[in-house]
Amino acid sequence: MTMHIMVDETVLMEFVGERRESLVCWNKLNAMQLVGYAELWATPDAYRLMEQEMSEQLPNEAVRRALGDTLSYIEICSVDANVVRLALSYGGTYEEGVLDACVRKVKADYVVTRKKLPPLRSKVPVFTPEALFEHLEKAKGVTFELVDF
Question: In this structure, what DSSP letter does residue 22 have?
């Protein structure tokens, strides 16, 4: 069965920014996706937040190209009236509410972030990328080893 993993803007920014420390995790996430073990999801808010941050340092065309390139492997949760209703009723910020509503909508198994999030109403576990792989190894016996060829 395919895992659904919601990644937020903090993790996406590491990939788009080619942060060396995160490349191993991204390579593992991509490998999981390529073999059909996982689908990677994000909220539209994640893209809005990344666009804002990147626009401070890069020309608009470069920002749009970089964000557009991620769409070949990241699915975007569509925001409809139901998502907005759930987000507005959420106890935290609207952004956290959209995340929680999208987690429910796509039936995410995990949220991957660098932020300290309050517990989600959906009760979906929240991990850093590194902690996700530790969890998968301990809880499910799944290990990932990248091989150069």
Answer: G
